[in-house]
Amino acid sequence: MRNNYLHVVIALLFIGSIFAQTTETFETEIDNSKSFTDNSQVFNITSQAGGTFDIANFTGTGWNGTAADNKFIDNSATADIGVPIQFTIKSAGGTSFHLKSIYLFLSQSDLNSGIGSCTIIGKKAGAVVFTATASTGFNSNILVKNGYTLIDLANYGGANNSNANIDEYIVSTTGTFEYVALDAMKWEYDCSGLVAPTANAQNFCDSGTVANLIATGNSLKWYSASSGGVALIGATALTTKIYYVTSSSTGCESARIPVSVTITPSSDNVTTVSACDSYTWNGTTYTTSGIKTGPTANCVTEKLNLTITPSSDNVTTVSACDSYTWNGTTYTTSGIKTGPT
Q1: Which stretches of 176-289 are assigned E, i.e. beta strand?
Q2: Can you give the C-alpha Rg of the chain in angstroms?
Q3: 77-81 long-range contacts, Cβ below 8 Å, gap at least 24?
Q4: Cβ-contact 33, 15 below 8 angstroms
């Protein structure tokens, strides 16, 4: 709250940590801004009644869920006597999210205790998804949580709307709730549409890196454990073990899918052959000696140790009367006769 609406905090301030990335406490937002960004998502604030809502900055007058903080959304300096409020917080781009909880400070425009009801309406694409209203249970003690009330969407208004898919929510009041401050907005992306990746077992000869792994999915991340740790960089050397892959999109990450990876040392399967003039192996005809390389399967490369010997003739000259028998064959005519090789 700012200007003449600043209330006095009589409380101990504690130094705490924000453990959930999806709790927006507005501490890093720009003063008087009508938009804010949390976990890479932009949200816009629009005001419908009871003054102008934007980011306020007053030391020790907010509530981050565990301790006082300095920044929040409110309508200070513009709250009107006798005018309840209404404002909307909407995700840019129509991104779906789940509103888990918010903290609200509800009072009259002069910060005295008020009476009335507070309604939270969740919408998606302009259609109402839920309406949650309460008229009791609001904290008016400035010494307790800085005067803020936890609005837990798991039970506020008598129903659990904490997992409803929305892209905006509207806060409105009745009665004398003319000043409202909002802090510690806890939310999460709607990840219901994210599909887990698919992948088969993978084998590599001698070595490989994470960049060589193959899976089908969106914005893949690889891990060395089923939970915890950080995503592996592409240059990470692979070993024989189970790796895990996820898909991610718009702040969401799928479950980790196990992928078996095997690293096998390369080896050769050598066949030794001697042939005259030429030899055909794996569809290729060779006419020279040497080591010939064939296909590789399962890290085993087929190789041929080939010796090629040029063909030659051993000629025996014979003169005979009438006939001559050679290598079991009787010849009665002259000429070059070919025997075995």
Answers
A1: 179-189, 202-205, 221-223, 241-246, 248-249, 252-253, 257-264, 267-276, 279-281, 284-286
A2: 40
A3: 77/2, 77/3, 77/4, 77/5, 77/51, 78/50, 78/51, 78/52, 79/5, 79/50, 79/51, 79/109, 79/178, 79/179, 80/50, 80/51, 80/109, 80/178, 81/108, 81/109, 81/110, 81/178
A4: no
Report DSSP state, residue 258.
Answer: E
Question: What is the model's pTM?
Answer: 0.69
Q: Considering the chain, what percentage of its residues have pLDDT values greater than 90?
A: 81
Dmax (CA) for the chain in angstroms is 144
Q: Which residues of 284-303 are buried (b: 16+ CB within 10 A; e: fewer)?
A: eebeeeeebebeeeeeeebb
Instruction: Kindly report, residue by residue over 192-242, the tens digit of the pLDDT.
Output: 888 999 999 999 999 999 999 999 999 999 999 999 999 999 999 999 999
User: What domains, with CATH codes, occur in the chain?
Assistant: 3-189 (2.60.120), 202-264 (no CATH), 267-309 (no CATH)
Coarse DSSP helix, strand, coil percentages of the chain, rounded to the nearest 5 percent = 5, 45, 55
Length of the chain as a residue count: 341
Question: In this structure, which amino acid lies at residue 197?
Answer: P
Write the single-letter amino acid at 33.
S
pLDDT on residue 341: 75
pLDDT band per the 50, 70, 90 thresholds, residue 312: confident
